[in-house]
Input
Amino acid sequence: MILDLERFQMQARPRWSSLDSLLVALEGRPDRRLTQVEAEQLQELYAQAAADLNRVTHGALAPELRQYLERLVARAYAELHYDPPTRAEFWQPRRWLRIFTLFPETFRRQSHYFALAVLITMLGCALGGLAVRYDPASVDVLLPADYLRDPGQRVHEEEQGKNQGLHSTQNEAAFSAQLIRHNIEVAMLAAALGVTFGVGTALLLFENGVLLGAVAVRYAHQGFGLFMTAWLLPHGVFEIPSILIAGQAGFYLARVLLRWREDRDVRQSMREWLVLIAGMAMMLVWAGMMEAFFSQYHAPVLPYGFKIAVGGAELALLTAYLLLIGRRKADAESHTRVPSENK
Amino acid sequence: MTNSEPIRWATTVELTIATPEGVLFRLPLAGPASRLYAMLLDIAIVLGTVNGIGLLVYWIFAKAPGFGVMVITLGEFAIGFAYGALLEGFWNGQTIGKRLFHLRVIDQAGLPLRIEQAWVRNLMRVFDALPLAYLVGGISAVSSPLMQRFGDRVAGTLVVRQTPLVVPEEEFWTRQKYNSFMDYPTIAMKLRRAATPELASLIQDALRRRNELAPYARREIYRELAAYLQSEISPFPDELVEMLSDEQYLINAAGALFGDQRVSRVHG
Output
């Protein structure tokens, strides 16, 4: 041991405690902004503490003092190199509303991953449809629920109003909340499964496609195509694209993880992923409400033509929103930058 | 600016950060057990909050229970996701559970957590929680050198232990007026050179816990330590050692290791 610890600690203690109290003050401040004087003071005290740490590490056997100084230096380092978002960025409503334009912009920027999600779902649909059409034995496997397996009975029950007892605004509200929650959970999982380098996302989309294709072919084959279209379209036009967007987010995440080293702008990548998820969740809220409050009413209460028209109008609006919103602005900026927070 | 990036390397228990200005410091990583306890506490807080709000909502919507269910279902869901993300984002990487267990989420470069990182690592919980009881996340954390679950890997974050520390007080063995070992400077120097930091802190810990140890255990531990030092590290003359108890031997050794380096103050 080279260092005279006793004398060293006696001399250094005052500067350690002033660094500590400066850090305590800064850490308690929500925006963590430094004034000019504080910044200079912090820089100086940090440099001294770092030098002290160096001396203790190499010149003394004092594990606890070393640990104490390491903690102090780590905190000062974090404060010095942290670039907090400004308070204005948090509390401007305009910033939060930006999500409504950011979402379609991001969707378009990453549209190739959306195309991949569509392709995999279509493959699933084709498999499910063909299986149900040409291999009756597969019906039991692919469509476990009775109401999916036996469309005739379901349509009859629905049109007779057998389930009408269930239709009350009360029940619909509860039902919509459960749908929203379940769908967001499934979609979130599809987006998070990107961490399996997209394999999990692909499997989930494929499975979803198989079920969709099987139901569609089963109903259409037995002559209930109109009923099914009217039943699924009003909420499906939001629900299915949002699952596809979740898949898009999943594939995007997989790509980001695969090129982690070369892609330096990780922060921007994470924002894109979060924006896609936020948009998808908003779409699923709407889909859940439509499914509970609108889709479950059938002819004669609501004519099928009207339901299909509503679904078509929704689809047109959604397409226009995703393809057009923010386009002019994006053209104006050669390189679109995503400012601040979006969730 | 690759050269301004801090260099990092990790052992199983700590992360060492070398900053661009050449400062080197270690951050102790949080183990899976403390993280689990913090998470269980957070879950309890979320459930308590949700149920509290739930009672209030049922009371408000007493005549329309369906709406009550809707508000609760969505509220529970939103609070479950937002609790961790918002608290960690705005409270410098800590939730209530993490604060009580002295844990903090930080950026893996040693910087404070950013808000988007907080969201990413919390949204990724749907994957880490698979197939049940955070099995995927747990396996990921145990197998990762930085103890990161998948959410941490994606967000580039890690959880560190932050027990509050104070400047350590001086120990009595650095202040003793007379240390007979210092009369033999060459052997004392041999002791200082041969003692590893682990051995030094073992001696220090043994002395510090003098009053916590049972008399028998203390006698045995001190005897073994002193015998080891005497036979393997620094053989002080037998006529000196015979006069010392094992405890005094260790106090002298600690004084030679940690205390004043000059030859004994009284005689020197």
